[in-house]
Each structure stands twice: as C-alpha cells, then as structure tokens.
Design goal:
A 9-stranded mixed beta sheet has the order 13-12-14-15-23-22-21-18-19, with helices on both faces. The protein contains 18 helices and 23 strands. α8 links the parallel β10 and β11. Helix content is about 35%, strand content about 20%. By secondary structure, it is α/β, with parallel strands linked by helices. Bound molecules: glutamine. Glutamine binds next to α15 and β19.
Length: about 550
C-alpha cells in the first residue's frame, strides 16, 4: 500500500481553523473507509509545548505515549476517535535537536550542516515516518503558522521537495485562507487570498484546493474569480463559513464535496459515500437539548478561550450524550473567596476545578471545593483540582490547618500532596513530568467503579506531585477514600467522598480521552449528577 500525503497550509492570518478543517477532512475520509491520521508540524523552537504557558499557546494536550503536544491533536482524536502519538506533533525545536544530535554523533561527518538539505530532510522524515508505518492510507500534515513567515519557510520548501519526490498524484496541498468582508464597501474581498496563493507559488507550490474562511457565503462568481486568479479547478474552491459548532464543519465540507475532490486528485477510489450516521445523531442531540445544566469551571487561565479546550469539549460530548445543553461558566480562581463564593456559585449544578501549576489562585480553588463539598454539589477535580480537594479536606475536615501541597509550600508541616519520589532529582523542566497513560485499579463499590463500569482503566497523566500515602489513614477515617490506585506503585489516582452524592477527584486527565464517538464517563456522569439523574450508568 502506498500512502497518499495531504498537506494543509494557511495564509493571510493565523487562527483560521486549519486544525478543524484538517480533522474534518480526515473524518470524511475515515467515514468512507480510509485509514487516516493527522500530523501537526509547529514552526516554533520549543521542543514541545509542555513548557509553554497556556496564555501563549492554549492547552497542552497529552497523548497515550506521553507526548506533550499542540491542542490540535485533541481535535484530531475527538473527531477521529483514534489515538495520536509523539509522531503526530513535531516542532522546529525537535527537528533541530535531532539534526544537531546527528551532527554531534558524526552522522554528517565532513559535511556542512544546513537548512537545505538537512533540516528539510528531517522534516520530510517526520512525515514519511507516519506513512511508512503501513497503518495509514492517507496522512494529513498540517503546517502550523502562516505561509510567508520566516519560520515556515523550511516547511514549505520540504513540502515542495516532498511533492517532487513522491509524485504529484500521491500528494496534495490544501491552502486555507481568509476572505474578509469589508463592511464599508459591503463586499467580500479576495485580494488577500490571491496574494497568499502568489506567496505560495513564489515558493514553488501550486495549491490544489483552496478552503476559504468567510463570514458570508461566496457566490459562484466569487469562487470562479478565485479559481481563475489562483490557477484552480472550479470545484476546488471550498468555502468554510463560520459555524455554530466545530462539529458542523465535516458536514459543511461534505456538502461541497471536499472529500470527493481530494480523492479524485490523489487518484484514490471514491469508495462508499461517507457514513456519518453516528456523527449526525451526535449533532442532532447536541442541537436539540431537552435540558440545560450549569457547570462552573474554576481555574486560573479562564480568560483564555483555549486554555481548557479538552475539558470544554468533553462537556460538549457529555451534554450531547444526555441531550442536555451544558452552560459552562468560568470562574477565575483568584477572584473567589469565602465571602463571595456562595453568591458567585449560586445556581451552579456542578463544579469542576481545573488542572494547573503553581500557587496563584490556589485559595479560590479550595474555597470552591469547600462550597461543593458542604452543599452537596456534584464535583470533579482534575489533577491539581484533585490535589486541592485533598488539601481542602485535610484543612477543613481532618483539622490539619497547615495541609498543603509541597509544590505550593515546600516547607509545609503537612505535605498531604508531595513530590513523587521519581521527581525529586529532576532538574530539567521539559518533558520530565509523569506523562502519558497508566493503569489504574478501581475499588469495587466505589463511585469510580460505578461510573466506569469496570475495575481497571487507563488514563493519561501530566504531574509531578501525588497524594501522600502517609496521611491515608487520616483521610479514610474522616471519609475521603482512595477509590483508584496505580497497581504498580500504589499511587492514589482517584479520591472520593462516599457520603457526598458525587464528589470525585482524579490525578489524571480524563478530558484528553473524550471523543465524539466515546464521551468520557466521568464527564457524562458529572452532567447526569448535575441534572439530578442517577450517576451509576456505565458508558464507555
Ligand atoms: N501541579 C500539579 C503537579 O504537578 C498538578 C499538575 C496538573 O494539574 N496537570 O502535580
């Protein structure tokens, strides 16, 4: 089987939704029976986004194999329901690191190491590595950034060479651009798109398909004009109108035959028409809710839309599965205190405390958890959210006034959350946390067991601190119990309060595993508990 390669580039501005368009195309091809994967090449020098602040780059997504990646990989998994891995996200930093390591080893002995051919060769290697696995008939590679940027140049050159080497029928370039609407003129303007395509052409690449992001529908005349000035077939100008939900985009692309035009150009059989039955029924449940539920999301990056992307999407999936509109209200943890918490959280039927790092906003998180615990409001604490639940319980129920995480106060008298043994000697910050999927055994008769409907699960992690087992007896005695443990090292993965209707804290990140096809049971059951339904309905 020879793999076909599709490259997706972007022009005019960033944030046009290349990730969603790539995921939508992949969904349509998958729905026709093709095996597809998506890869993101990011033109920044960080080796991965793990060391980036969410303000810089949105959420850091984590794969099963422990890669800290761009959040677009989350979209790929949510759309395709197929796990991604380190190979699906490569940055300029990683490419340079590989090339420099090779240079030091002497792999290029005698040669001058240069952007062309060494960096471009390494970029091409990263693409073919996925294709050569023999698993995928189609590899879609999304090039981050905007064509014309200095950082993107080696990638665009690598794509140019790749097409020459693999053949023009085995490769395809889709360029995503913006068609702005000028209010004063009352017109959509195609000139920026023409210029962006010219930039691409000047770098030796003729795009095969243009996807045009636009607020208003392009008429046939506009499409023809774009096709004429950009050397495209008339059926190869696709509009991407602003959508009410990202999950509409595959259907919008299908309406304009994006998938069949792609298959025709890469000379693959049309096979069956896409089977989108399940996707459509998800959309119909999403758009026709019978209930509304109010969920509070407490975190310190809430002002940034993308900081908790996977949690937001997991709630969308969970809501659709219960035909329930989930209204998420974000609360900045720095703004919550004992005085205002009741008024602020009034009307919230469920509370999530988000993952995070560092001391800022810790007090507000603890306050929100106390409120959820004392008022029997369904609560889900994720990673730092779980750790805060342990601190809160330690301080307010067990009476350990100094209970804290060693992350927040290394000298604390009661480090109920402590640094993991394996982390003590870690000095580098990048890629050194406990990362990726680990097994967790669930206690029979626990809420966790009822939620998952089985006794062993695997979830993804990203942390350095853990529940301090020296305090286990104090917790169990007062009513907070560990209901999920890592079977190898006894690390507490889940805590819950059996007396509370729904209070659960998880050391892992369930949000990374929620997809359209498989809404995550923790979020599904949080929503059910919040609307007052019995939670013990296993979903998988
Ligand atoms: N800062 C905490 C730790 O490192 C929690 C991490 C997280 O929420 N992802 O353990």
């Amino acid at each position: 089987m020879s793999t076909k390669y599709i490259f997706v580039t972007g022009g005019v501005t960033s944030s046009l939704g290349k990730g969603i368009v790539s995921a939508s195309l992949a969904k349509l091809l998958q729905a026709r029976g093709y095996s597809v994967t998506i890869q993101k090449l990011d033109p920044y020098i960080n080796v991965d986004p793990g060391t980036l602040n969410p303000y810089e780059h949105g959420e850091c997504y984590v794969t099963d194999d422990g890669a800290e990646t761009d959040l677009d990989l989350g979209h790929y998994e949510r759309f395709l329901n197929v796990p991604t891995s380190q190979a699906n996200n490569v940055t300029t930093g990683r490419i340079y690191q590989t090339v420099i390591d090779k240079e030091r080893r002497g792999d290029y002995l005698g040669k001058t190491v240069q952007i062309i051919p060494h960096i471009t060769d390494e970029i091409k290697n990263c693409v073919t590595k996925l294709g050569n696995k023999g698993t995928y008939e189609i590899v879609i590679t999304e090039i981050g950034g905007t064509v014309g940027d200095i950082e993107s140049l080696p990638y665009v050159e690598a794509v140019r060479q790749f097409r020459y080497e693999h053949g023009y029928k085995n490769t395809l370039v889709i360029h995503l651009t913006l068609i702005p609407y000028l209010n004063a003129a009352g017109e959509l303007k195609t000139k920026p798109t023409q210029h962006s395509v010219k930039t691409l052409q000047s770098l030796g690449i003729q795009p095969d398909i243009l996807v045009c992001r636009t607020e208003y529908s392009l008429g046939e005349d506009q499409k023809r004009k774009i096709a004429l000035f950009c050397n495209l077939d008339n059926n190869s100008v696709i509009e991407s109108l602003d959508a009410s939900t990202i999950y509409d985009v595959p259907l919008m692309m299908a309406d304009q035959n994006l998938d069949s035009v792609v298959l025709e150009k890469i000379e693959l059989p049309q096979r069956n028409t896409p089977d989108l039955t399940n996707w459509k029924s998800f959309l119909s449940r999403l758009k026709n809710p019978v209930n509304t539920v109010h969920i509070a999301l407490v975190g310190k990056y809430v002002e940034l839309q993308d900081a908790y992307k996977s949690i937001q999407e997991a709630l969308v999936h969970a809501g659709a599965s219960s035909e329930c509109k989930v209204e998420v209200t974000s609360f900045h943890s720095e703004e919550l205190d004992d005085e205002n918490v009741a008024a602020a959280l009034e009307g919230m039927q469920g509370i999530i405390v988000a993952p995070g790092f560092g001391r800022r906003g810790l007090g507000g998180k603890i306050t929100a958890i106390k409120y959820a615990r004392e008022n029997n409001i369904p609560f889900l604490g994720i990673c730092l959210g779980m750790q805060c639940a342990v601190i809160e319980f330690g301080r307010n129920v067990i009476g350990l006034n100094e209970a804290n995480s060693a992350e927040m106060d290394p000298q604390t008298e009661h480090p109920v959350i402590d640094i993991m043994e394996q982390q003590k000697d870690v000095t580098d910050m990048g890629g050194t946390m406990r990362l990726g999927a680990y097994t967790c055994k669930l206690e029979a008769d626990s809420l966790a067991h009822a939620i998952y409907g089985r006794s062993e699960i695997s979830e993804r992690h990203r942390h350095r601190y853990e529940f301090n087992n020296n305090y286990m007896d104090n917790y169990v005695e007062k009513g907070m119990v560990p209901s999920g443990m890592n079977p190898e090292n006894n690390l507490v993965e889940i805590v819950e309060i059996p007396e509370h209707p729904f209070f659960i804290g998880v050391q892992f990140h369930p949000e990374y595993r929620s997809t359209v096809a498989n809404p995550h049971p923790l979020f599904v059951n949080l929503v059910k508990a919040a609307i007052g339904e019995k939670h013990a309905i296993a979903v998988n």
